[in-house]
Amino acid sequence: FRDGQPITLLSMKLGAVGLTERFLTSDPPRSKEVNELRSEIHSALERPARELQEFEWDNVTGTSGTILAIGSALRLQAAGDQMVRPAQTMIRLRDLSAFNNTLASMTVAERRDAARLSVRRAEIVVAGGLVLEGTMRALGIKSLSTCEWALREGVIIDRLRDWEAQSRPPMPDIADQKLRGVHAVGKRFGYEEAHS
Fold it and tell me: Exposed/middle/buried for 67, CB within 10 Å: 0-12, 13-18, 19+?
């Protein structure tokens, strides 16, 4: 992001459900299936990795179901059997890689119990975890933070801000910088322009 706007947006067909259906047909998955899935993910990420190679990653955040489930499972694993409250989690590449290897050797039922996942999430977590791991490797990301908010909440917030900005009168053409600043502050806090 630069000035609150995305610099570039990329989309790839690497959904965990579709990849699971295409590649992971055994329970537990066979090594060959997992390797073919890793290869597919690596191939899909080659072009984006080239396009993004000049960027450095100060902060990386992951959102939505599979990433949050992996973060929660890693947090539970680190805490042992102790109860942990939901919180932001740091997912480190080395921990994710070990976690993925462990889950890929388990059945769906074993994954569900070991990582405390729903049945549906336990079915797709191997593919989702491998996509996350592959992405982190391709982009040189060593760790990322989880976030409870997802893309849809961000889109909704952006749209609400747009509507709010459209409902306000346009900024008058004021040459005096101080008066412009006062008007900008008033506009930000919804002052009554006609009265003021």
Answer: buried
